[in-house]
Structure formats: C-alpha cells, structure tokens
Predict the structure of MarR family transcriptional regulator.
Amino acid sequence: MENSNGLTASLLVAGHHAARLLESHLSATDLSAGEAVLLTALAPGPLTMSEVMSTLHIRASTATSMVSRLERAEYVYRSSNPEDRRSRLVHLTLSGRRQLEAVGPAFRAVDSLLVSRAGVGAVAGYKRVLEALAESE
C-alpha cells in the first residue's frame, strides 16, 4: 500500500481495513469491530472506564457510547468500583460471554487470512512495528 504520507498514514488506513475485514466476519453478530475488541478486553475481568479508554486507545465519549450500546444489548453491565467509588467498572454478562465466544472465530479467520496473504515473516515484522508504536506512548 503506497502512501505519500508514509508509514503512519499507512498504519491508520490499515487499521480501518482491518476493522472492515473483521466486521465482514462478524456479520452473524450485531457487533462492530471495536465492540468485539472491547468484549475481548473484558474477558479476563472488569475494567474501569479509564482502562477501557486506555486499552482501546479511544476517547471518553467513544468509550461511553460503546459501553452504553453493549449495555443496552445486555452484553455488559456497569457497577460501582469498590476501590474507588468515583469510578465505574464494566463487566461482561453471560450474554456478553456468549458473544465473546462467537467473535473468536472471526478474529481467527482474519488472522489466518492475513498470515496466508502476507506470510509469517511479514506478520512478525508488522507486530514489531506495532510494539514500537506502543512503546512510544
């Protein structure tokens, strides 16, 4: 993918392509790519809204609307944080765990497709670029 603005612009465009590709594999669910990633992030346990924002690298308004949509669908619920009453925890519900099981095959299908098209070496190199990007924050 040639881009006159270099690597950064290409990474941003690639992220959008990855989201669209994942969403095509999520068509059996009612989830967006971002919502699927959020459910995956919640699998180990509840997160505060600040942790949702930092884990997904999204703004507060985006996190709030995403969690609200998942809450209306009964995939997550919010509770008071016993360690800090000013913050709220976001938890998966049983329905949310079922949705999480449904998104696993979509992630695996996209991963498999990308590895088959680009090769293991290219994917490993891309992961190193992403790690360097994460370290720059």
Summary: The mean pLDDT is 93.
